[in-house]
Amino acid sequence: MDYQKFVSAVEEEINQFFSGDVRAHMYVTTKNNGKERRGITIVEKGINIAPTIYLEEFYEQYRKGKDIPSIVERIAAFYREVRFDEPWDAAFMQEYDQIKNRIVFKVINAEKNAKLLEHTPHKKMLDLAAVFYVLLDVCDGGTATMLIDNSHMRQWGVTMEELFRTAQKNVKKLLPARMETMQQVVSDLLEKRGDGEKPRKKRDLLDANEEVQEDTMYILSNELKSYGAACIFYEYVLQIIGVKLGEDFYILPSSVHETIIVPESTCLNRKELDEMIEEINETQVEEEEVLSDHAYIYRNRTGAISM
Length: 307
Known about the structure:
Structural class: alpha+beta
Distance between the termini: 44 Å
Largest sheet: 6 strands, antiparallel
Low-confidence stretches: none
Mean pLDDT: 89
Number of domains: 3
InterPro entries: DUF5688
Strand content: 25-35%
Strand order of the largest sheet: 8-9-11-10-12-13
């Protein structure tokens, strides 16, 4: 059974699993970098906001031998975790003053998302683009967001520059930047798997009171680790890193969710870096999570990032 038939089978099974007040239907959308994804949207009577659950992970379970009824039970359990208990008041989206404190931004590849940018307010940054979204809710199952398009900007009567200023202010509170050593990140992953020592206090190397531990690589993202590559365009973040490291540094686009900071003195030459990034993107990063195929460099003297 291919993926599309699997999604259809899951849709039918979910509709048998739930009562008449809850219905599932297939949902097809174009995600980052033009990647098409199919999932299941589960709609509940009286609730005007519905989660979409993408099924690639469940499809892999099916291919490894798990039957569809068992998979549907897992999907239903996940839905119960992320469902909204009350209807969403869409009226508050109509007034900019009601929504402006939830506006944030993420960065995407400008060329690969050219069609999206035709109807979406954005700020070009090198070969990337900052686009804006409303962070509606954050829970254990993920985030509820709404992308801002040109119609919203016209309705609110605001400019792109005003959106960017507002988003720059909000990300500091809603999605603060965080930098850790690669060693610390790996250690945290082992702890989550139960393979490591007891959990230690997390250290944010952007904190003025924290000394930078010497390492060859550092991970920069936000606290949610969701679209954290945007942190390279937060106010003063790169300047702080430059001061902490005491030298220029490369920024490797690990994905749209994080970047890797590498001090220039510890690094490969630029050509080798770009070749490494391109290979990793092709073999280890999901297509919709690729940011770009080359490194960026930050110069302390100029306080600027370049390609």
